[in-house]
Specification:
The protein is mainly alpha-helical and 108 residues long. The chain is built from 6 helices and no strands.
Amino acid sequence: MLELLATVVAVSMCWTGFGLLALSQREHWTVSAAELAYPSRRRVRGVRFLGALLLAGALAPCVAAHGAGFGLLLWMLLLAASAAAVAFTLAWRPRWLALLAFLMCDFV
């Protein structure tokens, strides 16, 4: 059960990290959150740093729950799957990232 919970946490961190990295680009921001003003350069830098931190931090629950060998492999696979999931979200339902954009405006 602990392994499943750690994997879910890692997936959430990877998806959020890639979502933040995508929304830090003006083109994706315009499609996902057109009603919100594009954040300042300083905030965009902070969001990119947070996105990268989330992606790197997702390694910790993978290694803690599954060990170094399989945890590293799982982390790399989750990165690829999460990147594809965010790309598909941007292609088909970009408004689903509007919640991240809203949080990006207020908390980052």
